[in-house]
Amino acid sequence: NFKEHNFEAAESEFKKVIARDAGNIEANYHQALIEIAHAKYNDAIVRLKKISLNRNTSDTFAKLAEALYKSEHYEQALEEAANALKKDPNNTDAHYYLGLAQKELKRYRDAEASFMRCCEINPKYYRAQFELGIIYNEEGKVLEAKTIFDSIEQNITEADMPEFYYNKAQVLTRVGDIEGGIKMFYQAIGLAPKFDRALWELGYALIKAGRSDEAIKTFERLLELDNKNSQILYELGSLYSLMPGDESKKKALKYMHDFVSREPEAPMGYYYLGKLYQQTFHETKAIEFYEKAVEYKPELTDVNFELGKLYRFIRKPEKAIAHLLKVIKKNSANAEALAEIAMATYDKKLYEESIEWFEKALKTKPDDAGMLAKLASIYNESGKLKEAASAYDKLLELSDKDHAVTYALADINYRLEKLQTAFELIKTALEASPNDKKYLNLKGRILFALERDDEAAMAFEIVLGSDGKNQDALYNIGLAKKRGGSPDEAILYFKRAVEANPAHVESYVNLAEIYRQREDMESAIGLIEQAAAASPESDALFYQLGVYYKDAKYYEKALSTFQKAAALNPANSEALFETALISYFKKSYADALNALKKAAAASPGDHKIFALAGEIYFKCERFDEARQELKKALAINPALSGANYYLGRIFMASKEYSEAIAQYEKAIETGQAGFECMSALAEAYQAMENYPEAVKHYKKAVDASKNDPVPVAALADLYFKTGDFDNAITLYRELKTKKTGDYAAVLSKLSQCYFNKQMWYDVIETGNELLEIKPDDLETLFTVAEASEEGQNATQAENYLRKIIDFHHDNIEARLKLGALYTRQKDYDAAIIQYKESLKINENRIDANLELGRLYKIKNFTSEAIEQFRKISSMSPNNYDARFNLAVTLFENSLFEDAREEFEKIIKLTPKQYQPYYYLGMINEEKGMMNEAISEYKAAIAQKHDFVDAHFKLAEVYQKKMLTEEAISHFKEVIKYDEKNFEAHFKLGQAYRDKGMMDEAVSENIAVITHAPIDSPYAERARQLIKPQAKTSFWKKF
Q1: Burial class, 115, CB count within 10 angstroms (exposed 0-12 / middle 13-18 / buried 19+)
Q2: Cα 642 to the chain's mean position, in Å?
Q3: Which segments carry the TPR repeats (predicted)?
């Protein structure tokens, strides 16, 4: 039974023997073997130790060594195996278990020797060969291991197969046969699904083979077997981090978060979390976890490098530099880290330091084109154009004459004013890339600098041909047009340039200059404001904006703008001078003098600073100081008109008019005198009562000042006095716009001028401004309401009339005018309200009653309308309008006999009116009294020969009476007075057909088609009538 491995039966028999003879050595020996087979190692050890006293054979000690090894008593196993070998040096089992125990005790050389001795004794001892292969594998002797495994594969027992496949898989992966190794791992796991070591190794092998999906499944299987193993979480997290898609990233984050929650001091977990957040653009979270990683392992170079890049990305260059320095400390030749530090110092605008770092990086990687390009760019940006040119020259060699580098070098040479060199380089670049807009733009700029304007324009136009919004091309063509004396074309190109790039300062400035030259200051100011907003640190732009504000008389804005320019650059003497000038205009003399002192310190040779100081001292009546400053100014420039002018002012103040005139004329002779000097001269002549000379010099002052309010006001008053209203209007309008002097008086005078000239719109405008001063002035309100109505602005007229009613509630005229206005607007309900309100004020107003009746009629309030018209007729029996409206209302409501009675009364009162006869004709026609109708229609025509409606109605009656000739006659009369009356043409055509006059009928139908709307039934019928028709019998017509 034992030999046939029927251990249960064998054990039963051996126990029977032992029961009869406890000291039976062979029975105990075999029972111990069965206990080893059943893994009852302790029982076997006890039994074998007992019988070894009597059965001290090599086999007994070998089996005892096996039991001790399997129960993990390796030292004792060694001892018993040695005892076995003492008895029999060729005992293969003893050698085998000796090797196993030595292997477990990591005495690999001894184990190797033991397994080799075993194999020497018995070359078919495959388990020893297997273990020898394992040792070779672990020692890195993979080829020897593979040889062994290949030779014994067919002899491995089924029980050892999983371990065999596992070890052979390891060997295959180590010799580079990853796919073979993976296959073996799968076979091992197939035989032993919970073989965790095989699963681990399979996972790693799949990763090496790039089979990440299978690797993930393998580690997930491991996680099912051992969900407390944090390393599995790490592996899954790292694997999912490499997989595409948001879901994979989410899983990677989950596994890594679980890993660091279990292993809070594991730096690589934080590293992967940082990397994952970095990949998903969560820079702040990435930094947080990277910082955790270096907290536990500061020397992690990759993490410090990534932190450096991230801190630079979020614009914290100081922190970026700190981490990158750690990288460089470990490896001073790390070119990427050196380049990143260079970029971080560049971000801090530390150009010199950035250049130094790039130079260090280039020492490590001298042929790195990217770093060299960035260094060249920094040289360029920091104004080191020669160094930039040198760097680009080297880059050109490295880049195999790359056209982009050639372009950059051309640009540097252009800026170095080496125009011919630049031109040759850009031509080379364009040969490689002939349609590059940037290259063409540079070519245009170079040609423009070479004053080859036509060729430059051609280059820019080529750019615009493919890119109509190219800012550089638009701007440069604008410059060419501006220089060439075509400002209108220049404006178009500059405007297109700022449309393409709203932050393009130069285009705004050039546009503003053109508008300023055209004296369109509002446009110019708006453009410079946009330029300053785009470049808020430029003191020059704010100075220029201040000048424009000043030119436009926006002094407060100008002052604050000049102050801002001076704050940005304290050495800007022009801004300080303008600050002083405006402070002076504001009579802030102390501020002005303070600014002038700063300006004089910044620019001691500027005469205008001292001239202005003298003027201010004059205003402060500090005459000695004024003379001192004026002398300083005149010492620098004797031809200063301002100094002479203020000397004249001194004479004027003392009423020495002749001396003042002489001084003013001297100032004017310099050709630099302002209009104030001319006005002062006119004032002096006026003081001497020499009015013609005063007028002459006021005009000069107005011209010189470009219509400054002071001389304009003086001249306007003179024109007003002389009755020259046209010239007065021109000047008062200007004064009104500038709102200077006695504003109400100016408006009053201007209004008088407009009234005399019947300029209604201007009366309204002026009236509005007067009403701002006197809101309830009745005369002005009626005037502007009337002018509004004349100007066909109903809404405006309504507003003024309502203002009258608000201020003067019982003013009936305002309500009547408002009612009439609503009627014209067809707001009949509102009109009715106003007429009713009028009648509350005066119930006998005929016009109010009449209009109310008409409104009732329009609103189809028939009984109210009739009652209203009867009321007026009783109040004023001879009132034609009331009676006629009453009669028409009765007629329209089919009250024919009542209407007839009213029309007949009207005819008695006013027999020359044609309308009553016409209505009587229609009443008779309605009653079938055709002859009487004819008589009335004829009476209407007798009163008004061109009464088209009466002719038409009369023709229709004649048609009904079969009097075709008469009908034709009157239809012709209709067409005579209204040739486009297509209905008359149609009926005339019918009459001609009745007469058999087919040609005339066709002619009239053509007229119908000509004049009638295309979709009119008359037109459709006319088209049918003029179609050619086949001849038919007389009966077929019916």
Answers
A1: buried
A2: 52
A3: 58-91, 92-125, 162-195, 196-229, 267-300, 335-368, 369-402, 471-504, 505-538, 539-572, 607-640, 641-674, 675-708, 812-845, 846-879, 880-913, 948-981
DSSP state of 741: S
- pLDDT at 1038 exceeding the cut of 50: no
Residue 473 contacts residue 482 (beta carbons within 8 Å): no
Query: Is residue 572 included in any domain, yes or no?
Result: yes
Q: What is the pTM of this model?
A: 0.41
Residue 132 pLDDT class (50, 70, 90 cuts): confident
327 three-class SS? helix
- The two tokens of residue 688 are 């001497």
Q: How many CB atoms lie within 10 A of CB 49?
A: 15
Question: Per-residue DSSP letters for 647-702?
Answer: HHHHHHHTT-HHHHHHHHHHHHHTT---HHHHHHHHHHHHHTT-HHHHHHHHHHHH
Counting the structural domains of the chain, the total is: 1
* Cα–Cα distance for residue pair 269/238, rounded to 1 Å: 9
**131 Cβ partners below 8 Å, 6+ apart?**
96, 99, 100, 103, 111, 115
Please give the DSSP secondary-structure letter assigned to residue 238.
H
Q: What angle do helix axes 471-483 and 487-500 make, rounded to 10 degrees?
A: 160
Q: End-to-end alpha-carbon separation of the chain, Å?
A: 133
- Rounded-to-integer distance, Cα 441 and Cα 480, Å: 13
**Strand, helix or coil for residue 725:** helix
**Which residue, 104, 103, 159, is CA-closest to 126?**
159
Q: What are 616-621's contacts with CB under 8 Å, separation 24+?
A: 616/580, 616/584, 616/589, 616/592, 618/646, 618/649, 618/650, 619/584, 619/587, 619/589, 620/589
pLDDT at 943: 92
Helix (H) or strand (E) run with residue 645 in it: helix 641-653
| Residue 696's CATH number | 1.25.40.10
Q: Which residue has the tokens 């309504």?
A: 798
What percent helix, strand, coil does the chain show, rounded to 5?
80, 0, 20
Lowest-pLDDT range of 237-251, 453-467, 1018-1032 = 1018-1032
pLDDT in tens, 632-673: 887 888 788 887 788 778 777 778 788 778 878 888 888 777
Please give the residue range of the domain that contains residue 699. 524-704
The Cβ of residue 176 has, within 10 Å, a number of other Cβ atoms equal to 10
Evaluate whether 216 touches 184 at the Cβ level (below 8 Å).
no
Confidence of residue 816 (pLDDT cuts 50, 70, 90): confident
**pLDDT of residue 1031 exceeding 60:** no
d(CA 638, CA 543): 28
Cα separation, 889 vs 9, in Å, equals 136
Question: What number is the average pLDDT over the span 202-212?
Answer: 89
Picking from 670, 668, 700, the residue whose alpha carbon sits closest to that of residue 682 is 700
The answer to whether residue 88 is domain-embedded is: no
Residue 69 lies in a domain: no
